[in-house]
Amino acid sequence: MAAVREPREEAAAAVGEGEGEGEEEGRWGGLLPELVEEVVRRVEASGGERWPARKDLVSCACVCRRWREAAAAVVRPLPESGRITFPSSLKQPGPKDFPIQCFVKRNKKKSMFYLYLGLLNGTMDKGKFLMAARRFRRGPHTEYIISLDADDLSQGSNAYVGKLRSDFWGTNFKIYDSQPPYDGAKASSTRSSQRFGSRRICPQISADNFDVGQISYKYNLLKSRGPRRMFCTMECPSTQETWENSLKTKSLRCTGTAVLRNKAPRWHEHLQCWCLNFHGRVTVASVKNFQLEATANPSRPDSVGDEETIILQFGKVDNDIFSMDYRQPLSAFQAFAICLSSFEALKPETDPEFYNEVTESLLAFATPASNVSICISSNSSLSLI
Fold this sequence. Notes:
There is one protein chain. By secondary structure, the protein is of the alpha+beta class. The chain has seven helices and 18 strands. The protein folds into three domains: 18-75, no CATH class; 91-346, Tubby Protein, Chain A (Alpha-Beta Barrel); 352-384, no CATH class. The chain has helices spanning 7-29, 33-47, 55-61, 65-74, 78-81, 332-344, 352-365; strands spanning 100-107, 112-117, 128-138, 141-147, 160-166, 172-177, 195-196, 199-200, 210-219, 228-235, 257-262, 266-268, 273-275, 290-294, 306-318, 321-326, 374-376, 382-384. The longest helix is centred in the N-terminal third of the chain and has 23 residues, at 7-29. The chain is globular. It starts with 6 loop residues before the first helix and ends with a strand.
């Protein structure tokens, strides 16, 4: 028969275990700082740039505070190194000179989307998991909840990253961050958190959502089969934050707003389709394929656009598999949210502005003799009478 412990004995045993863990942590933390830094430096050098080798560096940073500080001193931030090592890198801007190559897997049955770091070279299952998102219907709106944990997509979770929210028509979107992007940022009015009674489940996690970007889609007049136009404004994350400091809400600076628009495709007469050069990263034609380039900010007369550099490109490579390449000034979180909007953007027949433009165009050509009128039926179909 198993012996039954008294509550006092259980408490003493728990204290003993805690002391043992403290002694173990103290033993590792008592090493010379120079030695710890050299160990971390060698682990990073031997790990290379690909996963799963770089997970050893993350393990070193999890030993104790001294090892974490050593890792922060050795590991360069994402804009400089071009490597995603720690979760905080997902909200840092990508490198300036080359893109970070990722891919997205879609699960239609579960309305799930998974972002991985890696190349589409036939070994996609070996990519490093970064984030997951799930589509939810919230009344007239649609939301994509983005999380570091594919099994925990609640907004009260420690893994909650942010969300994408659409309007009623599915043509305008807003990106919300779980943390303030800079000092003085004001939370949006769409507060949401999981509560138990009158207390929030995770009080240490901010229940606020901070607006960090807007996305809008427009369609060419009377060309429902033509390419759609895309326009984005994004709050740029700071390029000076290290992964250690980015976990904190202090010393965050606003570095301006980036204005992006989709690169206009060209019409290929021989293929009879709209074409963009994805340099082999996209292999399947789809309305979801796009490339974003920087344009001048209308609110800043001194801003200059860059039509030669592709900031973000997204496209289909197989059934439910898409490539995603991004660079500065976007972060992985922002790039992922923009790509999610491509799945939700509705057809031009559901866009109210599409109806207005068609109505104005047809009325301009109508004459009393032609007796042309417009009828929009209850099932949102447009016809001529």
